[in-house]
User: Fold these one by one.
Assistant:
Number 1:
Amino acid sequence: MTAAPAAEPLFLPAGGGERYCLYHAAAGPCRGGFVHVHPFGDEMNRTRRMAALGARALARAGYAVLQIDLAGCGDSSGDFADARWDAWHDDLALARHWLERQTGQPAGLWGLRLGALLALDHAARAAAAGSAPARLLLWQPVLSGPTYLTQLLRLRMAGDLVDGDGSKAADGPQALRALLRAGTPVEIGGYLLDPALAAALDGVDAARLAPALPVDWFEVVAGADRPVPPAAQRIAAAWQEAGRAPRVHTVAGPAFWTTQEITECGALLDATVAALAEEVHA
């Protein structure tokens, strides 16, 4: 397999400043492109290594990749407190347009965790506007915005308990939701969550986002004999009832988005490239 060119860093002008990107050109003839949509908060930091390895693997397989730090994240302009779901949609549209001009090929979205849910939501909005992405790669997607928000608020409660402030944790996630509904930002693990972003998360659910385009969905499980998790099975079944047919894959490996140390899952990289190759040769 041809070695991929070195990644090229660049800044794209955008609303409120610039978006930091890494462009991975395809090795050999370009078969298409993917915009990488990263996770939220610490998961973004924990998955940087896998995102880089995945971008290189896709580039070696003939797919150009643009990694973009969304508004308020990473090395892009703004603070996370200023991050908004709609602004992230604008960033994905910007990134897709740039990548398609660069390669002359349709671009898909490759989302990881919350980035996968954002990719699904963006695909639905773009399709309604007549500009759907070429395809989706979903790595361990977050499937329910409300459930994910509750998990984030529980992390905040756990932090309060560790800090010895049990009084704040006693009221549970609903008290924090009430603060958000009242317009008060909530700090979670060093990230200030704005009420508008929280409200957007509360309104997005993969069950309502069945995409009418090719989808390869990857779930990382503890062992090769483990089935697709029940929540993923329910969503996939709902999509199939809506006339969509995602290809759902299980891959045995570590939950690299949760580990404190940098962890790799080579089997996920191999499975992703293999799934694209199957479609090319079908």
Number 2:
Amino acid sequence: MVDLLDETGSSQRWLDEALERLRLVDSLAPVKNVIVRETEQEQLRVLRSEFSLALSAASDPGSIQHPIISSATAVSIEAGQIRLHATGGGLDLIRSYLLVQLVKASYRGTLRRLKICANPECAIAFFDRSKNCSRLWHDVATCGNSANVRAYRQRLREREAAAAQSA
């Protein structure tokens, strides 16, 4: 699988597209003017790892890994409501925004629906909209299908091995 964060050009395209899609659903999302420089490549990959661990830990409360992600945020009180806001610039703003979203999801009770695709070659984050919150893959047609085919073939091999032993 191709890692879009391996080089600066593809990282920039991925980040621009992600922020553009995010702004369609959240007007408070960071704008598309975050520039990824070569020196920030590793920071972007670390950010991805941090949030992957955070989502994995959120979906498995008994997990051993308990990530600590820190970033500056701001609190405002407007019309009697307390709000948490992302602060900073560049990748710090992205990290801060993502942390604010994790906190909001936790308070809204939707954090358990934020998941990482169960396909280890994929690892895309997705929001599980299924009624019983049971999705494992971000896309059943791609990741789910290949996993199901592998599991089916493994079961066939086990049945054939068991049949050969009993014969």
Number 3:
Amino acid sequence: MNTTIQTAKSRFSRFATSVGLIAAGALLFAGMASAHVTVKPSVSQPNAWETYTLKVPVEKNIPTTKVALKIPNEVVFKQYEPVPDWKVATEKDSSGKVITVTWTTEKDGIQAGQYQRFGFVAQNADQNTAAAWDAFQYYSDGSIVEWTGDEGSSNPHSITEITADATSATPAPAADSGHDSVGTAAGHASTDTAKDSNPAPTSNNAIEAAPAASAPASSAAQTTALVLSIIAVVLGATAVGIALKRRK
């Protein structure tokens, strides 16, 4: 009888431990699921000189040392905000429009568990449309994560909905409206070609084509990730507590 009870307790303990490990895995997945490279705001007004923010989190245990951002047809890149220890290079098409902006560092880069913001100003199209931001994240080991997928994919790109109904967009000051050249700052050289910037690789996604009309529900995804994280913590703590109690 005692042997049967001990066997049952042992099996239950292993089961509880397994549940704890699964819950911990769910927590890790939920955390990673929300750690996407994003461009904000997700909604802006037509013809606005918008101040955009590229946010780059690190999902691996190695640093990110380079980020390349494809500029959608629906916006015109104007200026960038200098970031200490990061150099900026631009690639232009035959008409002189900036099509890629690349941030590179020779320093430590963005470390595991950290993120970095890169700010820039771009002028939106003068009509309702949607702008898809394809981004390429380079790690120090040479690996590249392409944030070029559609909504619902594992590596989605950000989309900014340009609409006259936008109420949260804040255009850049009127004093900036006459500047059509890319801004540069001391120590942050800007180039016109891809020769020195080693731009993003060619993607199968149609960068030049008009993107999907609806913006991804990033807030919903973050809420889902938070709920999953809470559930995972509760399940993990419960499983570990039961396992420890049964072993006594």
Number 4:
Amino acid sequence: MSSENLRPRFFAASRRSARLAADRACARVRPEYRALLAETQGRVIGVAEYDAGDQKDEAEVSVVVADGLHLRGVGTLLVEHLVSAALVDGITTGRRAQ
């Protein structure tokens, strides 16, 4: 991810933030957290995730799409699938991750 793509996602151009996000997405399954990955040809091109924390029906939502693939529907498709999964999991309200 370029610095231009890291900054709006993590509010900094830190590679450490990106590594922590990758670790979180690949961690042990937790009922309050879900991550969906989009990939093509073995390369991850997008991630959408929600984290409900202690909330029962509300979660923070975040999305990131690889450089060069913005405005091609990758994020939209990830969000549509994440919303469907969240509803099944009892999440009814989302908020943008801060």
